[in-house]
Design brief:
The chain is an alpha/beta fold and 368 residues long. The chain folds into 2 domains: 187 residues, 3-Layer(aba) Sandwich (Rossmann fold), CATH 3.40.50; 151 residues, Rossmann fold (3-Layer(aba) Sandwich). It contains 13 helices and 12 strands. A 6-stranded parallel sheet has the order 3-2-1-4-5-6, with helices on both faces. A 6-stranded parallel sheet has the order 9-8-7-10-11-12, with helices on both faces. Helix 1 crosses helix 13, helix 8 runs parallel beside helix 9 and helix 8 packs across helix 12. The N and C termini lie close together (11 Å). InterPro entries: UDP-GlcNAc_Epase, UDP_GlcNAc_Epimerase_2_dom, WecB-like. This is GDP/UDP-N,N'-diacetylbacillosamine 2-epimerase (Hydrolysing). GO terms for molecular function: hydrolase activity, hydrolyzing O-glycosyl compounds. It holds the Pfam family Epimerase_2.
């Protein structure tokens, strides 16, 4: 009898990371795969990315709506509570052998917390990591505490999970799924990518999110960022992916929109690339600038340097391609000058471990 597996996906970001594993699960007759889509997947404001799940060939998709349009503390807390209520009903009516969950989003934590009374067996990917500048750090550790099976990316993260869960059992270091089988991914060529998005010049790839641990300072950070990017965009084009639904994310959305209005020809805003086009952008860009985990985890595999701004990713293990600087206009500009002179990065990616998806599949089969 096939093992019944559900996968919790709350955003375009985690779906892209899951994809190598999802394709394996879908093609293996040992598994009956169901997708549980919620969070920004069902938000038209964020591109209604549940359509991307369907376009990727997945047919059994449960949709659970619980996201509010506001992004202040009350709205985030209310969304958390609403997500718990919706998933309490869902877990009461649906049972699985394993439910896969990934990362650190607040809505992911809410879905997992709701499953505890129902004894849902969760398998957590990318646990044990630390991001001191984001409240996601707390949600990630909550998810680890509620999970019975763990797939961290590195040995250091595995050690942290042991400390969080107070056990060394059921923890398997597998590497990062997002860069698994990178060489065989159907990433668009640079020519096709540039033609599709009408990008002709040399460009930097940017992604900025708010610092959720210090929301009162986000207005200050946004002002420093706008000043820096107005200057940087005079020397290099900027391709910017828009923020997720985080606390006070709208502050950065407004800032980036204002930048675009002032620099129409040098700045391009993209709501949602999708994984393959995002990787094409990463491969084609001069360098990355922002405070997103993709710069930390993935960019080294594309030979790119990353300017990591602020504290959102503070504490997360880094390869040697990462240059850190604060939300200070002058320091951001100086970091860009420094990185612009560097050749392609040729060092290792500490998150890379061959056969990540295969390892997870084998372990799941052992834990039916």
């Amino acid at each position: 009898m096939a093992m019944k597996i559900a996968v919790l996906t709350s955003s375009r970001a985690d779906f892209g990371i899951y994809l190598p594993l999802l394709n394996r699960l879908k093609s293996d007759s040992s598994f009956q795969l169901e997708i549980i889509a919620f969070g920004t997947h069902l938000s038209k404001f964020h591109g209604y990315t549940v359509d991307q799940i369907r376009e990727s060939g997945f047919t059994t998709i449960h949709e659970i709506t619980s996201l509010l349009t506001n992004d202040d503390e009350v709205a985030i807390a209310t969304s958390f509570g609403l997500t718990v209520l919706k998933f309490a009903d869902f877990w009461n009516n649906n049972q699985y052998d394993w439910v896969l969950c990934l990362g650190d989003r607040y809505e992911m934590a809410a879905a997992v917390q709701a499953g505890i009374p129902f004894r849902v067996r969760f398998a957590h990917l990318h646990g044990g990591e630390t991001t001191l500048g984001a409240i996601d750090n707390i949600y990630r550790h909550q998810i680890s505490s509620a999970s019975q099976l763990h797939f961290p990316a590195t040995e250091d993260f595995a050690e942290r999970i042991k400390a969080i869960t107070e056990t060394s059992e059921n923890i398997f270091t597998v590497g990062s799924l997002s860069i698994d089988e990178l060489e065989s991914m159907d990433i668009p060529s640079e020519g096709d990518f540039r033609k599709k998005y009408q990008i002709n010049d040399e460009f930097a790839l940017l992604t900025f999110h708010p610092e959720t641990v210090s929301p009162e300072r986000n207005n200050e950070y946004a002002r420093e960022l706008l000043d820096a990017l107005l200057n940087i965009s005079e020397k290099i084009s900027l391709v910017i992916t828009m923020p997720n639904a985080d606390t006070f994310g709208s502050i950065f959305r407004r800032t980036l929109t204002k930048l675009n209005e002032k620099r129409l020809t040098q700045v391009k805003l993209i709501e949602n690339f999708g994984k393959l086009n995002y990787f094409a952008a990463m491969r084609s860009c001069k360098f990355l600038l922002g405070n997103t985990s993709s710069g930390i985890i993935e960019a080294a595999s594309f030979g790119k340097y990353v300017i990591n701004v602020g504290d959102r990713q503070k504490g997360r293990a880094q390869s040697k391609n990462v240059i850190n600087c604060p939300f200070d206009s002058l320091k951001i500009q100086n970091a860009v000058k420094e990185v612009s002179k560097l050749p392609a990065f040729t060092g290792e990616n500490i998150y890379k471990k061959s056969g990540t998806a295969d390892s997870i599949i084998k372990i799941l089969k052992q834990y039916k």
